[in-house]
Design a protein that fits this description.
10 helices; 37% helix
């Protein structure tokens, strides 16, 4: 969100070409903005606290809201409709289920505030890409940051730099100056990889012993 808002990705490319102009790089302060968190699991809660640290008002939508946690942390429980209509930034942290598939569709995008930002580090299929492209083309959204994409299989994690990209929707997304796409790398730290290996190897042993599987924050994501 910070990279997209302050246009760091564009500035980085500019200065490599010795272009130090600030034209077109104006962002906005997160302080005082309303942020909507969709999904208050472990990652959603941490994200909510991070936005709160910037001085944001945080709305939280969850199918089974923990009202005690929300109250203790000055978070505001909200309906999906309230989040979409009030939030300046909407961040997705939901699992993919039949009920959440294309949760952010044409109708949901039209209910979002004009100029609002959408961040998806959850699951690609939470967002209807065709509807997202339409919202971007009519300049309804201020920006979009995607670490996941609904048709990422066969593209993400691969080097396609010497190939023609067959996915027309992904190709179009990459042309927007206010869209930041990363290849499902939000989890990619040394610590997270170590934890994944620890949990996975531990579960092989526990499976052999007939014991309940271990769970970790990274795995549960």
């Amino acid at each position: 969100m910070l990279t997209l808002n302050r246009k760091i990705h564009r500035a980085y490319q500019r200065v490599r070409e010795h272009n130090f102009s600030l034209n077109g790089l104006v962002g906005f302060d997160l302080n005082g903005k309303t942020v909507g968190i969709l999904g208050a699991g472990q990652i959603g809660r941490i994200t909510a606290k991070l936005f709160q640290a910037f001085g944001c008002r945080v709305l939280v939508y969850d199918l089974k809201p923990d009202l005690e946690w929300l109250s203790e942390n000055d978070m505001v429980p909200a309906s999906l409709e309230e989040v979409l209509s009030e939030a300046d930034v909407v961040s997705l942290h939901l699992p993919l289920t039949p009920g959440t598939h294309h949760l952010i569709d044409e109708a949901a995008l039209s209910r979002m505030k004009e100029g609002s930002y959408l961040v998806n580090t959850g699951r690609g299929k939470l967002v209807d890409t065709a509807a997202l492209l339409a919202a971007l083309k009519r300049k309804h959204l201020g920006g979009v940051a995607l670490d996941v994409y609904e048709e990422e299989e066969g593209v993400f994690f691969e080097d396609c730099s010497n190939e023609i990209l067959d996915d027309d929707e992904l190709s179009r997304l990459l042309t927007f100056p206010n869209v930041l796409v990363t290849s499902h790398q939000a989890f990619l730290t040394r610590e997270a990889l170590t934890e994944i290996a620890r949990i996975t190897c531990g579960n092989f042993t526990r499976a052999d012993d007939g014991k309940e599987f271990l769970e970790g924050t990274v795995v549960k994501r």
